[in-house]
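During the no-cost extension, the postdoctoral fellow (Dr. R.K.) reprocessed legacy sequence entries with the updated structure-token encoder. One reprocessed record is reproduced below for audit purposes.
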Amino acid sequence: MIHWIEDGRPCAARWRSESGMPAPKRVQIADDRISADSAYRLACEGTGLLWRGDFQNARQLLQALARRIDRPAKVKRARPAKNEAQSAQPPIPAQAFHLHRQAQSQRARVLAMLLLPHDSDHGVPLRRAPDVRQACGDAYGAADAPYVASLRELLGLIGAYEWRKNGVPVAALGERIHPHYGVFAPVRGEYVDLVAAAPLPAGGAALAFDIGTGTGVLAALLARRGVARIVATDQDPRALACARENMSRLGLPQVELLQADLFPPGRAALVVCNPPWLPARPNAPIEHAVYDPESRMLRGFLQGLPAHLTPGGEGWLILSDLAEHLGLRTRDALTAMFAEAGLRVAGKHDIRPQHPRVDDATDVLHAARAAEITSLWRLVPA
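Re-encoded structure tokens follow.
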């Protein structure tokens, strides 16, 4: 619950945050009369601003807050001493990565301080507010009482709703995949292209496992390639609901969905896994598709793979080497994981990413992104 004083009366409402953002400890009423500088100062101090003005003006204020966060800080340069280096050394990649994530986390906390009221049907009772009931219902489920959430999160929910409604085109599939809120969307097509092009192992057309299926895009692709039966697993109920909806849309009854942490029972000639690529701690629940703390999922997949392959079968590990360029994991550490699991590499297929950040020289992680290669490792028992 969050608490505030309005018109001289104490008020309270439930706080909602799918991103796991903690409720602000202090809340005050704000409307169209507040200046962007005042709002920025209060937000940086951790004061939530519960908006009572025009919805579109709140969006403009959020943009103004973001501009203030993103503008370069003015640094007063002191004259270096004679025995000091004349120029500071750039941070090592791992340090730059962690500093970047720290800055992004702080940015998210400040922007989350602009709050909106919601009615018990998810509607926003503000002037010029759009109808967001379906978008909020898809992410939050049913509401039984009014609540308060951040405008920044609401805009994310609206974007996710549009993706779910319109779908994401997947060239290798020749179809659209409709991601749900909180389920990683297949916007980077290179890993799908790898699975589309790799030769199926002997017996791989009979049964395949898709570990951590997410939207179900790889399971759907295997089905389109002629695999007779695919068992796709995920431990996230949202992902399973999303994959189930996509399989229904695509007319793929040969894909069986199962809630499981990694493997289903039995063995298959082909076991596919596209785990989170970066061994770091997620800052929010929806980041689990990107960050794999201590490589838990990667290690679990490798350790369990030999026991779930039929003779002559292959495990396909789809993994970017971005972690290596960021100094978060070495290639030797990765191949040592293969050996510890009793696996050897039967082949490897590589592809370079095509996403816009590859060419964005202003990105603090540009050097690592520009060097990134995504690989499909074909693994077999040693």
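The chain has a mean pLDDT of 91. Residues 18 and 110 are 16 Å apart (CA to CA). The remaining legacy entries will be reprocessed before the final report is submitted.
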